[in-house]
């Protein structure tokens, strides 16, 4: 059973999955406390369009992904700040545009569609050393941001009004939060399903909320839950040839159901 761990591709996928779990602990509390899980869904969908564009122009996916993050944050910040469109509506509008544009673009790519499907459904064979370096860098940046501004981000997530009354420039921190989240999703899409990545950022945090009574406990439980799901997902993907994204979401959903039943008792 454990001979699979001797394969290089499996080792890379395992390291990448665990790194994603560690980077996610910076985001779980904010995504759950802000009560806007659709934001990850919106980012993943609009990023799908940029993936198609990068293939269309034969460009570097990472360059297009980081460019997408900057443009997306600029657009969403402008819409929410200078129009009367609600936060939920603006994200959903952009999300549907990205999904429709991506599907339309696939029809123009021809044989390149196979590579697109690797992003759509995830693949443990798709992880490269560059992905690991980027995830390590994001983990370091996330730790630094959390140490310096973690309490401020939590204040904004819990009550933007109180944070504003304390002199905190919410708009500036919102931009940093959205930018970090967008880049994280851009790097993670090679491993997780573009249509289900949002579940990986929502379910662990909610599992932590059910089991724990304080924020530190939520982060610890969420991280452990995601790591367990990553290991189980890799083993299932290898031995049963199942879809990466679908498998990990089902595992997290089962853990969420068990936690809910335990809480009820």
Key features?
single chain, 265 residues, mainly alpha, ABC transporter involved in vitamin B12 uptake, BtuC, globular
Blueprint of the fold:
Elements (H helix, E strand, L loop, with lengths): L7 H26 L4 H19 L4 H22 L4 H23 L3 H9 L7 H30 L1 H6 L4 H19 L8 H15 L3 H26 L3 H21 L1
Helix pairs in contact: 1-6, 1-9, 1-10, 2-3, 2-4, 2-8, 2-9, 3-8, 6-8, 9-10, 9-11, 10-11
In short:
The chain is an all-alpha fold and 265 residues long. It is built from 11 helices and no strands.
- Please identify the structural class as seen in this structure: mainly alpha
- What portion of residues belong to β-strands? under 5%
Q: SSE order in H/E notation?
A: HHHHHHHHHHH
Full CATH superfamily name: ABC transporter involved in vitamin B12 uptake, BtuC
Task: Compute the separation of the termini in Å.
Answer: 36 Å
CATH structural architecture:
Orthogonal Bundle
Rg for CA atoms: 18 Å
The CATH class designation is Mainly Alpha
Estimate the mean pLDDT confidence. Answer: 77
User: Percent helix among the residues?
Assistant: over 70%
The backbone outline, from C-alpha atoms, is globular
């Amino acid at each position: 059973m454990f001979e699979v761990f001797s394969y290089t591709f499996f080792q890379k996928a395992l390291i990448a999955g665990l790194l994603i779990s560690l980077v996610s602990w910076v985001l779980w509390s904010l995504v759950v406390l802000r009560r806007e899980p659709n934001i990850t869904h919106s980012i993943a969908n609009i990023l799908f369009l940029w993936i198609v564009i990068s293939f269309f122009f034969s460009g570097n996916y990472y360059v297009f992904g980081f460019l997408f993050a900057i443009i997306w944050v600029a657009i969403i910040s402008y819409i929410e700040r200078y129009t009367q469109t609600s936060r939920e509506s603006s994200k959903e509008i952009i999300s549907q545009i990205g999904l429709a544009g991506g599907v339309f673009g696939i029809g123009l790519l021809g044989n390149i569609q196979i590579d697109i499907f690797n992003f759509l459904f995830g693949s443990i064979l798709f992880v490269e050393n560059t992905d690991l370096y980027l995830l390590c860098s994001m983990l370091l940046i996330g730790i630094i941001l959390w140490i310096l501004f973690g309490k401020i981000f939590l204040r904004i997530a819990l009550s933007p009004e109180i944070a504003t009354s304390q002199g905190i420039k919410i708009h500036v921190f919102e931009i940093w939060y959205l930018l970090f989240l967008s880049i994280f999703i851009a790097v993670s899409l090679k491993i997780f399903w573009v249509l289900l990545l949002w579940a990986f950022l929502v379910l662990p945090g909610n599992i932590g909320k059910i089991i724990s009574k304080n924020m530190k406990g939520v982060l610890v439980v969420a991280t452990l839950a995601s790591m367990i799901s990553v290991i189980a997902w890799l083993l299932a993907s290898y031995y049963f040839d199942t879809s990466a994204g679908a498998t990990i979401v089902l595992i997290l959903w089962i853990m969420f159901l068990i936690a809910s039943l335990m809480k009820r008792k």
